[in-house]
Specification:
The protein is an all-beta fold. Strands 1, 3, 5, 7, 9, 10, 12 and 15 form an eight-stranded mixed β-sheet that branches. It is globular. It starts with 8 loop residues before the first strand and ends in a 5-residue tail after the last strand. The relative contact order is 0.13.
């Protein structure tokens, strides 16, 4: 979507929800394993030619039933929406106060994107992922990956904390500003299965220039920023926020111009 000028078209105050409703097929089919509930390809896709202003939207793959169902294992839903927000826009994009939660492969993916400003983005990893999960990412989407998707090939096949959804990916992009991003991980293997360090990686950056991260917060994730396969910022060296949390005030990736 795009108008005559950058940001002419927008979305405000919108909620994308998958699951959490009584009487739906998602409700009846999604309480066993993730492959039984590949409920949607993704939440939002801003393509190469788009230019949009997006404010106060929430893409939520339900981790509990809004209509009064149980919130604990085994009653909590296990829903495998593939992706959160895939941003491939290059003509000027603003994301202000957005959230993408509980999607399988990633929450935000800035792929071959340019001139994007994302402010106050919030996420949670899927509760059903991690140790104790019946399937490890990219499953159950392994046979349906696209070129922009993470493959998790750098993870050992049985490394459940590595094979969990990325918070943010930035690949082949330039002029990306990410301010006030936060991702929380509360459970491994289902609601109620608490953990101290629950996930290995939060943010992955590769083959990009002019990427600016400010005020990044995590809970229970060991590696906050992986930059071209190098662990730049670990939680233990950047303690803060939640218990077992981490904060990086600023990371400027290939930001110096000739």
């Amino acid at each position: 979507m795009a108008g005559k000028k950058p940001g002419d078209v927008g979305i405000w105050n919108s909620h994308f929800r998958v699951g959490g409703a009584a009487g739906s097929k998602v409700k009846t089919a999604c309480s066993t394993t993730a492959d039984q509930c590949m409920a949607a390809w993704g939440m939002i896709h801003l393509t190469h030619t788009s230019s949009a202003y997006v404010e106060n939207i929430w893409g939520w793959t339900a981790d509990h039933d809004l209509d009064g169902g149980p919130d604990s294992v085994p009653g909590a839903p296990i829903i495998a929406v593939g992706r959160g927000a895939l941003i491939e826009a290059t003509a000027g994009t603003w994301l202000v106060g957005t959230a993408m939660e509980h999607n399988t492969l990633y929450q935000y993916n800035f792929n071959a994107a340019a001139d994007v400003c994302s402010v106050f983005q919030q996420s949670e990893s899927p509760y059903w992922q991690g140790p104790g999960a019946s399937q490890l990412a990219p499953a159950p989407w392994t046979e349906f990956l696209t070129p922009s998707d993470p493959t998790f090939e750098d993870c050992e096949s049985a490394d459940a904390q590595c094979r969990m959804a990325w918070f943010e990916l930035v690949n082949g992009s330039h002029d990306i500003v990410l301010y006030g991003g936060c991702v929380w991980v509360f459970f491994n293997g289902g609601v109620g299965h608490s953990c101290d360090i629950c996930q290995q990686n939060a943010i992955g950056i590769s083959k990009s220039t002019g990427t600016f991260l400010y005020g990044t917060n995590v809970k229970a994730i060991e590696n906050i920023i992986i930059s071209d396969d190098v662990n730049i910022a670990g939680r233990s060296d950047n303690d803060g926020s939640f218990p077992m949390g981490g904060v990086v005030a600023a990371y400027l990736y290939n930001s110096i111009r000739d």
